[in-house]
User: Fold this.
Amino acid sequence: STQSHGGTVFHSNMSDLRERLRGERRRDRRLGESRGEDSTRSKDRDKLGSERDTMSESTPLSFARSQDRASGGLVTRSLDRSADIMRQPLSQNADASYFYLMVSGQVESLQMQGGDNMYCRYNFVWGPDWDSIHGQQIAQSQYASKHGGADAPLVWNLPFEMTFRSFNPSGWPQLVLAVYGTDFFGREVVRGYGSIHAPTSPGRHVRYLRLFSPVASSPLARLLGWLFGSHSEFYDMTIVARSEGREVARVQSAGVVKVIFNISSRDLDRFGYVTGPPH
Assistant:
């Protein structure tokens, strides 16, 4: 457009004005987008921090905990915590309100008359005041056969390792064993059960666990079980570690299992419990 003022003509370049307005709008738009991205990043950081706090509070000690790799703060923890817990000084322990017990060793062999080609299965049980923080609770051995005559032992050498923590010695961990074999017709049957408490004193211990097997309530039931392969057995092998429900159970001796224990403990003296050397 053309305007006159005092005899002077001013030419306004409207195209230049429109370009300046567009540039200002683009700058405002970029500034708004930058602020929005900063706000989104802040929200994501807050959300990630809350998720880490929740994981650290709710994740059990027996599992490895890690942070998100995208956050650049990856933290990994090994599942094998037994040696770390035993080596840590008390001041570095995350929770000093417990004492710790490490049980390792092996189910070495079985001595049984009239049995061959058998395997065993173990199961650790403990009281309600105890927690398992490392180890395999249940395991099974290979089949073993006798070599050297009917009196030779069946050797398994089945290893085990568990680490517990507690504030109450009641419910001290027990090792429960079940031995399985085959009958005359090649069917799998239970040959014996047994349970033993883990030793209380540190060191190496050799224990002999006597097995027993359930007996049918009548000769007729025993004959039918032999014919149809339904021999008497416990529906839950851990029942042998408890006294409930065993008042009327009839059992017979089945054999002896040799078990080797290696025991380590920590902080028992802080709770007033003294364990002596092995006898």
User: Anything to note?
Assistant: The two ends are 113 Å apart (CA to CA). The longest strand covers residues 251-266. Helices lie at 14-58, 82-87, 219-228. Residues 18 and 24 are 10 Å apart (CA to CA).
